[in-house]
Amino acid sequence: MADDERMDAYELLDVGDGARLERFGDRVVDRPHPGVLSARLDPVAWRAADLVYDRARGWQGPDAGTPWQARIDGLTIELRPTDAGQVGLFPEQAPSWRWLRERVREREGATVLDLFGYTGASSLALADEGAAVAHVDASKPTVAWARRNAELSGLADRPIRWFVDDTVAFVTRERRRGRRYDGVVLDPPSYGHGGGGRTWRLDAGLEPLLDACAELVGGSAGFVLLTAHTAGWTGDRLADALARTFGLMPSDIEAGELAVEARSGQRLELGAYARWAGG
Fold first, then answer.
1. Do the domain assignments include residue 84?
2. Distance (Å, rounded) from C-alpha 133 to C-alpha 126?
Protein backbone atom coordinates (compact mmCIF):
# COMPACT_ATOMS: atom_id res chain seq x y z
CA MET A 1 0.00 0.00 0.00
CA ALA A 2 1.40 3.44 -0.91
CA ASP A 3 2.38 5.85 1.85
CA ASP A 4 -0.29 8.39 0.89
CA GLU A 5 -2.96 5.67 1.02
CA ARG A 6 -1.82 4.42 4.41
CA MET A 7 -2.07 7.93 5.89
CA ASP A 8 -5.18 9.16 4.05
CA ALA A 9 -6.96 9.82 7.36
CA TYR A 10 -4.29 12.33 8.46
CA GLU A 11 -3.12 15.54 6.84
CA LEU A 12 -1.14 18.51 8.11
CA LEU A 13 -2.96 21.42 6.51
CA ASP A 14 -0.95 24.44 7.62
CA VAL A 15 1.31 25.75 10.38
CA GLY A 16 2.10 29.22 11.66
CA ASP A 17 1.77 31.77 14.45
CA GLY A 18 2.54 29.17 17.12
CA ALA A 19 -0.03 26.59 16.00
CA ARG A 20 -0.65 23.68 13.63
CA LEU A 21 -3.79 22.78 11.72
CA GLU A 22 -4.37 19.06 11.13
CA ARG A 23 -7.04 16.76 9.80
CA PHE A 24 -7.54 13.53 11.69
CA GLY A 25 -10.23 11.54 9.90
CA ASP A 26 -13.28 13.77 9.59
CA ARG A 27 -12.19 16.42 12.11
CA VAL A 28 -9.91 19.42 11.62
CA VAL A 29 -7.90 20.30 14.72
CA ASP A 30 -6.20 23.60 15.57
CA ARG A 31 -3.70 23.15 18.41
CA PRO A 32 -0.59 24.96 19.64
CA HIS A 33 2.95 24.35 18.51
CA PRO A 34 5.09 27.12 20.05
CA GLY A 35 8.10 26.40 17.84
CA VAL A 36 6.29 27.58 14.71
CA LEU A 37 7.15 31.26 14.28
CA SER A 38 6.31 31.68 10.60
CA ALA A 39 3.08 33.17 9.27
CA ARG A 40 0.14 31.00 8.25
CA LEU A 41 0.03 30.38 4.51
CA ASP A 42 -3.63 29.30 4.26
CA PRO A 43 -5.70 31.56 6.58
CA VAL A 44 -9.00 30.35 5.11
CA ALA A 45 -8.33 26.74 6.15
CA TRP A 46 -8.04 27.70 9.81
CA ARG A 47 -11.64 28.93 9.89
CA ALA A 48 -12.83 25.37 9.18
CA ALA A 49 -11.41 23.91 12.42
CA ASP A 50 -13.80 21.64 14.31
CA LEU A 51 -11.66 21.66 17.46
CA VAL A 52 -9.49 24.48 18.75
CA TYR A 53 -7.21 24.14 21.78
CA ASP A 54 -6.86 27.28 23.88
CA ARG A 55 -4.27 27.16 26.67
CA ALA A 56 -6.49 29.16 29.01
CA ARG A 57 -9.89 27.64 28.21
CA GLY A 58 -8.99 24.16 26.93
CA TRP A 59 -10.68 22.59 23.91
CA GLN A 60 -13.35 24.60 22.12
CA GLY A 61 -15.86 23.28 19.60
CA PRO A 62 -19.20 21.46 19.46
CA ASP A 63 -17.59 18.01 19.84
CA ALA A 64 -14.77 19.04 22.18
CA GLY A 65 -15.57 16.32 24.72
CA THR A 66 -16.18 13.36 22.45
CA PRO A 67 -13.75 10.84 20.90
CA TRP A 68 -13.66 9.92 17.23
CA GLN A 69 -11.85 7.37 15.08
CA ALA A 70 -9.44 7.50 12.16
CA ARG A 71 -7.98 4.74 10.01
CA ILE A 72 -4.23 5.41 9.83
CA ASP A 73 -1.45 3.17 8.51
CA GLY A 74 -3.74 0.15 8.47
CA LEU A 75 -4.86 0.70 12.08
CA THR A 76 -8.03 2.16 13.58
CA ILE A 77 -7.08 4.69 16.23
CA GLU A 78 -9.45 6.40 18.65
CA LEU A 79 -8.65 10.10 18.98
CA ARG A 80 -9.56 12.02 22.13
CA PRO A 81 -8.95 15.65 23.08
CA THR A 82 -6.70 15.59 26.16
CA ASP A 83 -5.99 18.23 28.78
CA ALA A 84 -2.43 18.56 27.46
CA GLY A 85 -3.61 19.51 23.97
CA GLN A 86 -2.88 16.09 22.45
CA VAL A 87 -5.29 13.78 20.64
CA GLY A 88 -3.61 10.41 21.21
CA LEU A 89 -1.55 10.04 18.05
CA PHE A 90 1.85 11.23 16.83
CA PRO A 91 1.54 11.09 13.02
CA GLU A 92 5.20 11.98 12.51
CA GLN A 93 5.89 8.43 13.71
CA ALA A 94 4.25 6.86 10.64
CA PRO A 95 7.61 6.14 8.94
CA SER A 96 8.72 4.45 12.18
CA TRP A 97 5.69 2.15 12.13
CA ARG A 98 6.52 1.09 8.57
CA TRP A 99 10.15 0.51 9.50
CA LEU A 100 9.05 -1.69 12.41
CA ARG A 101 6.76 -3.68 10.14
CA GLU A 102 9.72 -4.38 7.84
CA ARG A 103 11.86 -5.59 10.74
CA VAL A 104 9.15 -8.02 11.88
CA ARG A 105 8.68 -9.38 8.37
CA GLU A 106 12.39 -10.24 8.39
CA ARG A 107 12.07 -12.25 11.63
CA GLU A 108 9.49 -14.98 11.96
CA GLY A 109 8.09 -15.11 15.49
CA ALA A 110 9.73 -11.83 16.58
CA THR A 111 9.36 -10.65 20.18
CA VAL A 112 9.46 -6.89 20.76
CA LEU A 113 9.54 -4.66 23.83
CA ASP A 114 7.70 -1.34 23.36
CA LEU A 115 8.64 1.12 26.11
CA PHE A 116 6.71 4.34 26.80
CA GLY A 117 4.10 2.76 24.52
CA TYR A 118 1.44 5.49 24.89
CA THR A 119 -1.79 4.70 22.99
CA GLY A 120 -0.27 1.74 21.19
CA ALA A 121 0.29 2.57 17.51
CA SER A 122 3.80 1.06 17.46
CA SER A 123 2.69 -2.02 19.38
CA LEU A 124 -0.25 -2.53 17.04
CA ALA A 125 1.86 -2.13 13.90
CA LEU A 126 4.24 -4.76 15.29
CA ALA A 127 1.43 -7.14 16.26
CA ASP A 128 -0.28 -6.65 12.92
CA GLU A 129 2.83 -8.13 11.26
CA GLY A 130 2.90 -11.09 13.64
CA ALA A 131 5.20 -10.00 16.46
CA ALA A 132 4.63 -10.86 20.12
CA VAL A 133 4.76 -7.52 21.95
CA ALA A 134 5.29 -6.36 25.53
CA HIS A 135 3.68 -2.90 25.72
CA VAL A 136 4.78 -0.83 28.73
CA ASP A 137 3.46 2.53 29.89
CA ALA A 138 3.20 4.02 33.39
CA SER A 139 -0.32 5.42 32.85
CA LYS A 140 -3.24 3.05 33.48
CA PRO A 141 -5.73 5.15 31.43
CA THR A 142 -3.27 5.31 28.53
CA VAL A 143 -2.77 1.54 28.50
CA ALA A 144 -6.56 1.12 28.54
CA TRP A 145 -6.71 3.47 25.56
CA ALA A 146 -4.09 1.37 23.75
CA ARG A 147 -6.12 -1.77 24.42
CA ARG A 148 -9.19 0.00 23.01
CA ASN A 149 -7.20 0.75 19.84
CA ALA A 150 -6.26 -2.93 19.62
CA GLU A 151 -9.94 -3.85 19.72
CA LEU A 152 -10.88 -1.26 17.09
CA SER A 153 -8.06 -2.49 14.84
CA GLY A 154 -9.12 -6.13 15.10
CA LEU A 155 -5.95 -7.06 17.00
CA ALA A 156 -7.33 -7.81 20.47
CA ASP A 157 -6.49 -11.50 20.07
CA ARG A 158 -2.85 -10.91 19.09
CA PRO A 159 -0.05 -11.79 21.55
CA ILE A 160 0.30 -8.36 23.18
CA ARG A 161 1.10 -8.26 26.89
CA TRP A 162 -0.09 -4.98 28.44
CA PHE A 163 1.88 -3.61 31.39
CA VAL A 164 1.04 -0.58 33.52
CA ASP A 165 4.48 -0.09 34.99
CA ASP A 166 7.41 2.22 35.48
CA THR A 167 9.63 1.65 32.44
CA VAL A 168 12.95 1.62 34.29
CA ALA A 169 11.62 -0.75 36.96
CA PHE A 170 10.14 -3.06 34.32
CA VAL A 171 13.36 -3.27 32.33
CA THR A 172 15.34 -3.92 35.53
CA ARG A 173 13.07 -6.86 36.40
CA GLU A 174 13.26 -8.26 32.86
CA ARG A 175 17.07 -8.25 33.12
CA ARG A 176 16.91 -10.20 36.37
CA ARG A 177 14.57 -12.72 34.76
CA GLY A 178 17.00 -13.19 31.87
CA ARG A 179 14.38 -12.21 29.32
CA ARG A 180 15.43 -11.60 25.72
CA TYR A 181 13.71 -9.73 22.89
CA ASP A 182 14.36 -9.50 19.16
CA GLY A 183 13.72 -5.76 19.21
CA VAL A 184 13.10 -2.80 21.46
CA VAL A 185 11.21 0.43 20.78
CA LEU A 186 11.68 3.53 22.95
CA ASP A 187 9.92 6.89 22.71
CA PRO A 188 10.84 8.49 26.05
CA PRO A 189 9.44 11.82 27.27
CA SER A 190 11.56 14.80 28.22
CA TYR A 191 10.32 14.57 31.80
CA GLY A 192 7.99 12.32 33.72
CA HIS A 193 7.12 10.62 36.98
CA GLY A 194 7.95 6.98 37.66
CA GLY A 195 7.04 4.52 40.37
CA GLY A 196 7.98 5.14 43.98
CA GLY A 197 7.99 8.89 43.48
CA ARG A 198 10.93 8.74 41.05
CA THR A 199 11.24 11.34 38.33
CA TRP A 200 12.47 10.74 34.80
CA ARG A 201 14.62 13.19 32.88
CA LEU A 202 15.75 12.29 29.41
CA ASP A 203 19.16 13.93 29.73
CA ALA A 204 20.09 11.89 32.79
CA GLY A 205 18.06 8.75 32.28
CA LEU A 206 18.36 7.77 28.65
CA GLU A 207 21.80 6.16 28.52
CA PRO A 208 21.34 4.05 31.70
CA LEU A 209 18.04 2.83 30.26
CA LEU A 210 19.66 2.02 26.91
CA ASP A 211 22.42 0.13 28.76
CA ALA A 212 19.77 -2.02 30.40
CA CYS A 213 17.89 -2.54 27.13
CA ALA A 214 21.08 -3.66 25.40
CA GLU A 215 21.12 -6.71 27.67
CA LEU A 216 17.58 -7.59 26.63
CA VAL A 217 18.15 -7.56 22.87
CA GLY A 218 19.63 -10.87 21.90
CA GLY A 219 22.70 -10.70 19.70
CA SER A 220 23.45 -8.93 16.47
CA ALA A 221 20.12 -9.96 14.93
CA GLY A 222 18.19 -7.60 17.21
CA PHE A 223 16.83 -4.19 16.22
CA VAL A 224 16.29 -0.90 18.05
CA LEU A 225 14.16 2.16 17.35
CA LEU A 226 14.77 5.24 19.52
CA THR A 227 12.77 8.44 19.05
CA ALA A 228 12.59 11.66 21.05
CA HIS A 229 10.66 14.92 20.94
CA THR A 230 13.03 16.86 23.20
CA ALA A 231 14.87 20.02 22.15
CA GLY A 232 18.60 19.38 21.77
CA TRP A 233 18.21 15.67 21.07
CA THR A 234 19.01 15.51 17.38
CA GLY A 235 19.18 12.34 15.34
CA ASP A 236 22.97 12.40 15.57
CA ARG A 237 22.87 12.70 19.35
CA LEU A 238 20.43 9.80 19.62
CA ALA A 239 22.63 7.76 17.28
CA ASP A 240 25.69 8.47 19.43
CA ALA A 241 23.83 7.25 22.51
CA LEU A 242 22.77 4.05 20.72
CA ALA A 243 26.28 3.41 19.45
CA ARG A 244 27.83 3.77 22.92
CA THR A 245 25.33 1.65 24.79
CA PHE A 246 24.74 -1.10 22.21
CA GLY A 247 28.38 -1.35 21.14
CA LEU A 248 27.64 -0.33 17.56
CA MET A 249 29.52 1.58 14.91
CA PRO A 250 27.97 4.95 14.01
CA SER A 251 27.76 3.75 10.41
CA ASP A 252 25.43 0.94 11.58
CA ILE A 253 22.78 3.45 12.70
CA GLU A 254 20.30 5.39 10.58
CA ALA A 255 19.26 8.74 12.06
CA GLY A 256 17.22 11.77 11.08
CA GLU A 257 14.34 14.10 11.87
CA LEU A 258 10.72 13.31 12.65
CA ALA A 259 8.85 15.79 10.49
CA VAL A 260 5.61 16.26 8.58
CA GLU A 261 5.08 18.23 5.39
CA ALA A 262 2.03 20.50 5.33
CA ARG A 263 -0.34 20.83 2.39
CA SER A 264 0.50 24.55 2.40
CA GLY A 265 4.19 23.75 1.83
CA GLN A 266 5.39 24.29 5.39
CA ARG A 267 7.55 21.71 7.15
CA LEU A 268 6.91 20.89 10.81
CA GLU A 269 9.86 19.38 12.69
CA LEU A 270 8.66 17.34 15.66
CA GLY A 271 11.63 15.36 16.96
CA ALA A 272 14.33 12.94 15.88
CA TYR A 273 15.02 9.23 15.49
CA ALA A 274 17.89 6.78 15.50
CA ARG A 275 17.42 3.16 14.49
CA TRP A 276 19.46 0.03 14.02
CA ALA A 277 18.13 -2.76 11.83
CA GLY A 278 20.33 -5.47 13.31
CA GLY A 279 22.16 -8.18 11.44
1. no
2. 7
Is residue 23 within 8 A of residue 13, CB to CB? The reply is yes
Cα separation of 112 and 169, whole Å? 17
Does 59 fall in a domain? yes
Q: Report the 10 Å Cβ neighbour count for 77.
A: 28
pLDDT tens by residue, 26-78: 999 999 998 888 999 999 999 999 999 998 999 999 989 899 999 998 999 99
Question: Is residue 38 within 8 Å of 16, Cβ to Cβ?
Answer: yes
164 strand-pairing partners: 137
Q: What's the CATH code of the domain at 34?
A: 2.60.40.1180
Which amino acid would we find at residue 218? G
d(C-alpha 93, C-alpha 53), whole Å: 22
| Alpha carbon distances (Å) from 248 to 96, 100, 101, 236, 273 | 20, 19, 22, 14, 16
For residue range 224-275, what is the model confidence (pLDDT) as tens digits? Answer: 999 999 999 999 999 999 999 999 988 899 999 999 999 999 999 999 999 9
For helices 121-128 and 94-105, the axis angle rounded to 10 degrees is: 30
- Give the contacts of 109 (CB within 8 A, at least 6 positions apart): 130, 132
φ, ψ of residue 7 in degrees (nearest 5): -115, 25
DSSP state string for 29-60: EEEE-TT--SPPS-HHHHTT-SEEEETTTEEE
Beta bridge partners of 191: 201
The gap from C-alpha 10 to its chain's centroid, in whole angstroms, comes to: 15
Residues 72 and 100 occupy one common structural domain? no
